Fold:
Amino acid sequence: MAEIELRNVEKHFGLVHVIKNVNLTVKDKEFVVFLGPSGCGKTTTLRAIAGLEEIDSGDILLDGKPIQNLRAADRDIAFVFQNYALYPHFTVYENLAFPLRAVGTSKDQIDSIVKSVGQSLGILHLLKSRPSSLSGGDMQRVAIGRALVRRPKALLLDEPIGSLDAKLRETMRLELKRLHLENGSTSIYVTHDQVEAMSLADRIVVMHDGMLQQVGTPTEVYLHPANLFVAQFIGSPVMNISATKVSEANGNAQIELDSARFDLPLDLLGMLEQKKAAADLSLGVRPEGVLVSHNDQPGYRPVVAHIIQPFGGFDIVDLKVGEKTLRARTTSGFIGKAGDRVWARIDPAQAHFFDTKSGASLDIRLGE
Ligand code: ATP
Structure:
């Protein structure tokens, strides 16, 4: 059992306020990913949990017991760094055995643990090699192995595959997922790569400027972003965001995007009123929420294809809507060429509304 809890955690570096009143519970066996842009405080928060960084105030609890005053070595939490930090003059076997020797584990036990961890990481054939002869992926496997041999209560990983090439990152992502399914230790993983976060996490913690923006499953943060920051940070290509006005026309709610108007269900007006929505509204819609047709159909507006990016399995198309661009995702080759006229509408179930000033989502769910 290993539950990690942060209560009102604060941290400054000089005048820079790096962690701002962070509250979070990571459940036993959960895989939580801290995701956010560079400098938002992910690593500092992780290092504070590990005991590598002191906090100014608040509590860090492991299984309900405060640990913020314990030394890193006494916290029973293992840390994997982006730079592998292996001992170059030791073999892989010795690197894996080192943390066990340090606590007086018997020779036989060390041998059995090193071989079992080596087996689960697929590095048994490398036990006699030295780090300098290993690939980046294998070095990181050894670094993870070294964190696992002590069977820590929790595993903290700081961009552990950030320095590997894209293809190897994909392989390692799957291996990390398998490893977590097998050994199930409570894990916190730091990355600024949203694909990594989406594919690995039970829950994602989106951070910005030292504050938690949203905590939720990958599906929750993708489908129901809590604010404009999360909406634009998660998803590639990014969500279309535009200032909008809503009025009633011909039995529909009509939203204005520049000079173009799109119809949405009339219910929207009642929902906005109920949420006491301010006048400054922003509409958000992901490219897959912009529906494109070759024909003029009810609810569709004429638009002109501007730039087409083929991705193989699908196309991303910039549609000109007055002076604005609305980015759509279509099936591959759906629009023949730039300059073609097509028709577009906004899928009500995929329309998001935000208060432009505060950035907060109004949590309006049409068509659900
Ligand atoms: P990255 O992905 O770039 O590592 P991050 O989200 O992990 O970013 P942190 O490394 O936690 O962010 O840094 C948060 C802020 O604290 C940054 O402004 C950084 O410059 C500052 N910072 C981090 N470590 C120190 C330090 N030891 N001394 C002073 N400032 C620091």
Q: What stands out?
A: The chain has nine helices and 20 strands. The two ends are 38 Å apart (CA to CA). The chain has a mean pLDDT of 92.
